[in-house]
Description:
The structure holds three protein chains of three kinds.
Chain A: E1 2-6, H1 14-26, E2 39-43, H2 51-55, E3 58-72, H3 82-86, E4 92-95, E5 98-101, H4 111-115, E6 121-135, E7 141-147, H5 155-163, E8 172-176, H6 183-189, E9 194-199, H7 203-219, E10 223-230, H8 236-244, E11 248-253, H9 256-264, H10 268-271, H11 276-289
Parallel strand pairs in A: 1-8, 1-9, 2-7, 2-8, 9-10, 10-11
Antiparallel strand pairs in A: 3-6, 4-5, 6-7
Helix pairs in contact in A: 1-11, 5-6
Chain B: E1 2-7, H1 15-27, E2 35-39, H2 47-51, E3 54-69, H3 79-83, E4 89-90, E5 101-102, H4 112-116, E6 122-137, E7 140-147, H5 156-172, E8 176-180, H6 187-193, E9 198-203, H7 207-222, E10 227-232, H8 238-251, E11 254-259, H9 263-271, H10 275-278, H11 283-300
Parallel strand pairs in B: 1-8, 1-9, 2-7, 2-8, 9-10, 10-11
Antiparallel strand pairs in B: 3-6, 4-5, 6-7
Chain C: E1 3-7, E2 25-29, E3 36-40, H1 50-60, E4 65-68, H2 73-82, E5 85-88, H3 95-104, E6 108-109
Parallel strand pairs in C: 1-4, 4-5
Antiparallel strand pairs in C: 1-2, 2-3, 5-6
Amino acid sequence: MIIAVASGKGGTGKTTVATSLALAAGGSRHAPGSDPVDVLYLDCDVEAPNAHLFLKPTFQQHREVGILIPDVEETLCTHCGRCAEVCQYHAIAVLGKKTLVFPQLCHGCGSCTRECPEGAIREKLNVIGALEHGSTAEGVEFRRGVLEIGEPMAVPIIRQLKTWLPARPGQLVIRDSPPGTSCPVVETVRGADFLLLVTEPTPFGLHDLKLAVAVAAELAIPVGVVINRDGLGDQRVDDFCTEVGIPILLRIPFDRRIAEAVSRGQALVTALPEYYPQFEALLEQITRAVPERGRL
Amino acid sequence: MKQLVVLSGKGGTGKTCVTASFAHLASSGPDPIPVVLADADVDAANLELVLQPRLLETHPFRGGSVAVIDLGLCEGCGTCASVCRFDAILEPGMDGTLAYAVDPIACEGCAACMYACPSAAIQMQPQLAGEWFHSESRYGLLFHAALKPAQENSGKLVTLVKQQARLSALDSGAELVIVDGPPGIGCPVISAISGASLALMVAEPSAAGMHDLKRVLDLAAHFRLPALVCINKADLYPQGAAEIVAGCLERGVEVVGEIPFDPLMTEAMVQGEPVTAYRPEASASLALVEIWKRLRVQLQDGKV
Amino acid sequence: MKLILSTTSAGLDASLDPRFGRCAYFLLIDPQTMEWQSLPNPALHSGGGAGVQAAQLAANHQCQAVVSGEFGPNAFDALAAAGIDMYKYGALGSVQEVIEGYLAGTLERVQGPGNAGHHGR
C-alpha cells in the first residue's frame, strides 16, 4: 500500500505527520503479538527535504540523478535547424554556425536526438541532483531525492526516486510530498493508494486544502484529512470536510510541546509517546479505506 | 523601481502574513510609498485572503500543450508509447483502456509522440492551465493567479504575474514591487527571483526551517541576489534563533529582525487583515514595523 | 546595417527596457538611414528560453548588434555564437542617445553575462 502525505499549504505538518506515521507503523512499540510493519519512507520534497532530520537514517547508498540532454557532434551537424524546430522548450538553438544546448531548459524528451536527419545528436546525462538510500534505527527504510541548488526541475528526481530500487512486497510506502498543488505534488501522489492531507484550521489552510482535494479528484485517489494545530484558527476547515464528505482521521491540538519537539528535530511520537496509539489508529483507518487490491 | 521578493525555502514560515504587513506599512505611516503587490505562489495563492482586494480583471492562462490522439487516424502501432519518457501514453489493456490515449496530467507537452507517430494521428493542444488576476487592495494593486490543480508549474505563470506587476509599477511610477514568493527552490522560486533587487528570507527557528533557509540562501547567492533574513516565531525555539543568527553572521547575511510567536498573527489572518493593521500594538506588529524600517533603508541606500 | 534595442513600447520615442529577454518590444533600426520597425517580444511570458528566443529573433533579422541593459547567460551565449555584438545602455536614456552613441563608437561593449540568469548557469 502506498500512502502519500500532502497538504497544499506549506508548513501544516506533513513531515511531522508522515514521520510519526512511519514510526508508529514500523517501530518497535507494538502491542505484544502484533508485528511491526515493513515501512519504506520516501521523502519526495526534493527541493527542501527535511524528513531525515526526524528519522535520522544512516545512509548507505548515494547516486547521482539527472536528465538526458542532447550532445551535438558538430562535425556531423549541418545546422539544418530541425532540432530547434521540434524542441518545445527552446533548449536547443541554431545560431550562426553553432548548435547550442541550454541544459536547464531541456526536459529530456529525446525528440531532437530522434529527429536529427544526420544522426549528429547523442544523449548524455546532465546531473541535477542525487538519490539517497538508508535505514533508521527503528528499521524504517528511508530514501530521498535532493535537487541541486540552481537547478529548476524537481519532477525528474521525484519520478526516479519512486522507481529506484522497487519496494518489497507487502511494504508500506509513505511518500512525503512537497507543498503546493502542481507538478511536483502530482508526481509524488500519482500511483498512491491513499492521499492523506494535513491541514491547519485557518483560511490559508482551508483555501489550499480545497486545491489539494481537487488534485486528489483529478487523480481519482481516496482522501482523508489530519487537522494539525487544532484550536488555533476557526471552524471552516471542519465545515468544509463535513460538506464534501471527507473524513477527518486525526486531530492534533496546538501544543507548544509539539512545536518545540518539531523545532528540535524530534519526531512527534518520540517526544509525546501518548500519540503512538493515535497514529496506529490512523494507519488502521487508512487501510480500511483503501480498496481491496491496494491493501497490505 | 525596485523589487522585493519574500522567500523562505520551507513552507509555512509566514511569508504571506509578513508580505501583507509590509504592504500595509508601505502605504501607511509618515512616509508612505506607492507599491504594487504580486503573489508568485500561484498553486497555493493566499495573499488575497489577507488583502481582501477588489477584482478588476481576470485573464485566462494557457500553459503548455498536451498531446491528443485522433483515434480515427491511429493505427495502434504503439510507437507513441515507446518514445514517451513521461509515462503519459495509456495503452490498450492497461486499467480498462480500450485504445491508445494520452494521460493529460502526465503529459509534459514535449511532442515526441507527435513527431514519432507514423500515421500523423497526434496533435498538440494548448491547455487552459489557470487564470491570472488584476485586483485592487487597500494598499496597492495586486497581481495574482490561480493555477488549476494538478497543472505544470514551470514558472511561466509566475513570470507572467511578476511581469504584469512590473509593467504596472513602471506605468504608475510605483517605487516598489513586493513579491510574495513560493516555497522551495525550484523553477517557480527561480522565476520569482528573476528581476528582484532584494530578497527577504522569512526563517523559522526549527531544525527543518534552518536546513531549508541554508538552501534558499545558497539559491540567492547562486543568482547573486542580495538577501536579508528575519526570524518568525523566534521565541518558539530560542536556540534555533541563535543558531540562525550565528549562521547568518558567518555567511555575511544580515538578520533584520525577530518576530515573536504571536497568536494575534493567526487571528488577524482569520479576520482577513495584516496583523499590523488589525492590532498595531501586538508584539508581532511592533517587530514587523522595525523590520520594515530596516528594509526601507536597504532599498533606498542604492546598494540594491 | 541593423541594431536591435530592447524597449518598453513601440516607436522611436519608446523608453529603454533594461532586460533583453523580457522586454515588451524590440526596436530594429538602421542607424544610418533611421529606418525602423518595432516588434512585440514573442517570449515576454515564456517560463524559460526567453533569452534564447530573443537572440534567435536578432539572428533571424540579421542584426549586427544588440543594445540592452543586461544580458542573461543564455542570451549571451546565443548572441556570441551568432556573432552578434552586445552593448549596454549604461546611463543613456533615449533611443536617440543610443543611436548617437553607437555611431560615435562610445557605447559600452558587453564582455560577459550581466547576471546569473534564471534558466541557465
